[in-house]
TrEMBL record, chains A, B:
This is MOSC domain-containing protein. Residues 19-180 form the MOSC domain. Signal peptide: none annotated. One of its GO terms (molecular function) is pyridoxal phosphate binding.
Length: 190, 190
């Protein structure tokens, strides 16, 4: 084990409206085994969609995409690649913005994030950037061309992670985050 | 993508008794989002124990250890290392015995197993061998010494996997299994 990997919570957000990407900053979020309480992605199950092509579309499966996380540093890199002043966590529908964890988006599936008030989040994997998230950025820079399509490349390996709640609790801005990587496993055929 | 990784289901088992390791072979198992219906490890939550030292003991966390899987080939290797005739899936409390998937225990976390009647299982990781499982083997070879403690080494990287149900369904002996490995991710500090 090397030095512990840590960061801190910059802001916490909830997306209450069913059809909108946008989330809204709040003073704290409660996470249950269903996800962020009050968020549109909360639920023990979800319907399989384009992100899970191995299931029939619409099949009810366990929800491993309850929570969306981005990092301050990676948002700045996306903004820089798009040549805009900033890209905000709320525009991308994130529930948590963290800072200080290097290459947040590259944390492997199975990584756990520990928060001081009990909450533990398990990372499912990278949130691959799509044009829908890109379109959510466009209204903030109406003078810029083709932001939605440029977003996919600009946000490559920077758009953050999705995951699920492993242990319920509270998360607030300023909370320290401790990162526990899973044991590395390499599978090769004999 | 190389050739698809496949195997088949040799037997399915349920452990109905709360305190016993042993499982019992049945003609089919139904898996729900809680796990194997009727099995003592089923449930959306579990209490944190010695296997999850990063939680306070007894904390209620999401149950990712609903289902236990072993492979015919690895059971034979364990038996050979213990110098006994056989080690049965039921003795180790497994819910599924698969055959034909090379190095089952080494499949990485995030691996999905697809069964023909809808069921999809997500692998959480290796089921590290413990003396408790070893003690469950002892009664079948009363003349052999120290099987429980030798089991831990004999079953190293051979004791199978645990995981959770991602999609409900039915699983029966003879069912084909399709294995989908997760995308490999390497995390390194900048």
């Amino acid at each position: 084990m090397s030095a512990p990997l840590t960061g801190h919570t910059v802001r916490v957000l909830v997306g209450a409206e069913p059809k909108r990407v946008l989330t809204r900053e709040v003073p704290e979020v409660r996470v249950s085994l269903e996800g962020v309480v009050g968020d549109r992605h909360a639920g023990l199950t979800r319907k399989a969609d384009v992100r899970t092509p191995w299931f029939p579309r619409g099949a009810l499966v366990r929800n491993s995409r309850q929570v969306s996380l981005v990092s301050t540093e990676e948002l700045a890199l996306i903004a820089s690649a798009l040549e805009v002043l900033r890209v905000q966590a709320s525009w991308l529908g994130a529930n948590l913005e963290l800072s200080g964890v290097p290459r947040l988006t590259r944390l492997p599936p199975g990584t756990r994030l520990f928060f001081p008030e009990d909450a533990v989040l398990m990372m499912e994997g990278e949130n691959t950037p799509c044009r829908k998230a890109g379109r959510a950025v466009e209204p903030f820079y109406p003078e810029r061309q083709a932001l939605a399509s440029r977003f996919v490349k600009a946000a490559h390996q920077r758009r953050g992670l999705v995951g699920w709640v492993e242990r319920p609790g509270l998360i607030r801005p300023g909370d320290a985050v401790r990162v526990l990587l899973p044991p590395p496993v390499t599978y090769s055929l004999p």
